[in-house]
Amino acid sequence: MVTALLILSLGGSVLLPALGPAGARGSRVIGGKAALPHSWPFIASIQMDGQHFCGGFLVWPKWVMTAAHCPIPRRNPSVRVVLGAHRLEQPEESQQVFGVEESIAHPLYDPRTVDNDIRLLRLNGSATLNKYVKRIRLPSPHIDLKPGTVCLVLGWGDISNYGERPEQLMETDTAIVKRSLCRTLWRGRVSANMLCGASRNATLRGVCAGDSGGPLVFKRKVYGIVSFSGERCGDRRYPDVYTKISNYIDWVHLIVLKHRHPEGQQKHNPGPGAAKGPGAGRLRGPAGGPRHRSGLEAPRRAGKGWDTRAPPPAPGALTVDGN
Ligand SMILES: *[C@@H]1O[C@H](CO)[C@@H](O)[C@H](O)[C@H]1NC(C)=O
Ligand SMILES: *[C@@H]1O[C@H](CO)[C@@H](O)[C@H](O)[C@H]1NC(C)=O
After folding, report:
1. In testing the pocket of ligand 2, which one of 151, 201, 204, 235 has its CB within 8 Å of the most ligand atoms?
2. 229-260 pLDDT tens trace
3. Does domain 149-246 have CATH number 3.30.470.20?
4. Which residues cross the membrane (predicted)?
5. Ligand in closest contact with the CA of 202
6. Does CATH number 2.60.120.10 belong to domain 41-123?
7. How many angstroms from the chain centroid is the CA of residue 1?
8. CATH 2.40.10.10 location in the chain
9. Could you give the strand order of the β-sheet that contains 63-66, starting from the edge strand earlier in sequence?
């Protein structure tokens, strides 16, 4: 029985009618635990009228990455991006709050198939990087995670089937599922632009409502964006599905470069209209050269931290498009 494709933003839509058993509704970073405060300093809470509705993560001091299916308008005073948070309901001194200057969904994002589910938010100011707020590094272009790799997912999404919200940031681990198996389980809905993760055993474990846009982390880099899950969250018969960020490195760099000089000719760039801009035709699928423009990266800081260069992954942990 095919379950509903549940989009994980709060207030997001269920794309297909539920065919599963009545009452089998999903939610939560499920089977997880509270994160140690500020141990994941790249995490962002995206809020509408003070309510958390999607996750995201800081990739450069002015840029937060999230899911395209999170309907985030630009220059809307109701929308806030909160960095450095742990307990959203409390006035934490570590928090930095920004508005959204530009909200740029991938031009080929398809709400029906949920393919290309990636969005960049340009903040209305630069985050101050400190022990509570750091950026996370993106993966090398087109790199894939090997099935069985254990990753971490984070979020302020629901923690029960009854819409219970956590008081603090939650985390859990998830194991990468081979894409071909995942595609079979999802009746063909999993594209080459997606990564799948599931609980390693019968324990319900994974992401759910409110976790959308959040990061799938492995060894100090972010490989995935929480995209969708089965109706019953944490159920490994319907693995959680993430946008495969490594397929979008060229697009990300293109967008960030375009907005580098906001006072210049790009000032009136319409954002999502980037689809019509030069290079848009080259954005389809995982095409594009593996150029890494390190010039875009924030200055590296000394010492340990998420904004320093991570050691190379353990041999064998990663494959390039292996399945
Ligand atoms: C950015 O937006 C936030 C939230 O709307 C606001 O509090 C802050 O003053 C803005 N900062 C700048 C530099 O405009
Ligand atoms: C499932 O695996 C987790 C570790 O990933 C472990 O803590 C848990 O006890 C296991 N549950 C079962 C039912 O084996």
Report:
1. 201
2. 887 777 778 899 999 999 999 999 999 999 98
3. no
4. none
5. 2
6. no
7. 28
8. 41-123, 149-246
9. 96-98, 79-83, 43-48, 51-60, 63-66, 119-123, 100-105
